[in-house]
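Predict both folds.
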Amino acid sequence: MREGRKMTLTMLGTGTSTGVPQVGCSCPVCRSTDPRDNRLRTSALLCVDGKHLLIDCGPDFRQQILRIGSPAIDALLVTHSHYDHVGGIDDLRPYCYRPDGSFFPIYCQSDVARDLRERMPYCFCEKLYPGVPRIRLEEILPYTPFSVEGVEVEALPVMHYRLPIVGFKIGSLGYVTDCKTMPEATLERLRAIDTLVINALHHGPHLSHMNLEEALALISKINPRRAFLIHMSHNMGLHRDLKLPDGVEMAYDGQEIEI
């Protein structure tokens, strides 16, 4: 990516699969009136010189995009096919009818493309009924850069327990969610990056997600200028109470980050 491009990342959601507040819970975090403790499912919108790339599209997408004014979206990048990351794709319908007649592009690995075809067969019929999302699946490969509307993106593999998924490196931004372990090759591509967004579920151990201690250890290895934590559960505690090292922040819904 050429130097000097203006990049802004808007956090559409920073919560784990249950969101915060969690249904049926009355803990202090779920009852908090601090808007930073109200976390929709994890997703983000990256703007690069006027081009808008959506990263994941979970079941809260409609609410998320409406509350920031429904900006244009040029493409979707998908990390993996778990419901909290793809459950809102049908709500992309308004973005799927483009002036030039082209279909809306979704960039994902082959296993995600297969899952989407199985879950949304009505989008891939020979004859599409009126109003159906008009989407085009573009399959991507790990460590192989690709271009989206003139923006260079690289898919970086991480392990979600035993499931190989991807994060993304876009210029000086690294975006990783649902990671439990990170291959050395991915770590090297992120090392000393300017801005790192990375998951940290809560304080205790978890089978398929990093907890706070593990995330901070990985951040220390990567050594970004700054890091933002996402994909957090209510068990992370109140936003105002979390003490973090210099250069590390707990991200919150609606936060805009200049990169």
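Second protein follows, with its predicted structure tokens after the sequence.
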Amino acid sequence: MSADSHLLKTREIGDRQRWNDLLRELPYAHVLQTWDWAAFKQTTGGWQPTRLAFHRGGEILALASLATRRIGPLTVMTVSKGPALDYRDLPLAEAVLAELENRARRLGNAWLKIDPDVVAATGLPGSEDDHRDALGQQFSQLLTARGWRFSNSQVQFRNTLKIDLQRPLDDILMSFSGNTRRKVRVAARKDVTIRAATLDDLPLLYQLYQVTGARDQFLIRPFGYYQRAWQDFMQAGLAQAFIAEVAGRAIAHVILFRFGRTCWYFYGASSNQERARMPNYALQWAALQWAKAQGCAVYDMWGAPDVFAESDPLWGVYKFKRGFRGTLVRHIGAWDFAPQPWLYRAYETVMPRLLNRI
């Protein structure tokens, strides 16, 4: 089915349940396109949401949760992990792009950024498992032809590891590397227990996250930011945390987000003690079992290196994740559309210097 851009119409959706229900039924639906994520970014970052439905003849064909914000004198817009639509229908994709471009022009945006969950390739680059995705290549060519450019600012991870949950649990476990299977069993032998977290555990989750941030040298936001993210999504049924304990003492946790048939491993943390008990391996195995029980078909481990070398900051995390033998998926990444190229260049060169002084 193709789409004629003259017949495609747009309207805003103002109801949370309807938006999420519509999104759930579309290809390439992502939790970062949910009503809840837009509300979270509005509260914590000042991003103003516009939830746009593209329809023809009463049929919803695409959704785009746009977030708009002023940065200094400039207006910017982003569609995190979207739009959601069937990218096999390239005329439809082009019609959606045209509408987004027109909105960016009307607002005088410095840039409009999209980051669809479209696959560019799978497998390790340069290996025998390196396979380019034809659809990803076609859509990237379409973006280039329309004047979009690959963004210098890749906000979300481009690459990830995805585990197929549509197999029996025993098969999933046996697909792990021998070393990973051994460490899952070590945790069980060394008295590591796993329990589901509740909202009362939020301060504990944050405390462990602080310890991990200090150890691994990444930025930690104030507690209120994570409290809002974890609490709101847990209350909405879109997130679940699990805590690894020894003798009732928390030593590690994972926080999972879920939407449609995908579960994402968004956050993980551990204490500086008891790491030899391998709690992180036990947590991943518990998370996989939980995701499968929820009806998820895919477990997305959320994050792999941009450069597959030991110099990449994510290399250590990648070594841990690849032991679970997911498929390495490389996405097309974020792309920017600049209605006024000079304004885009000013943002790219001047604004980072100004922001660094604030």
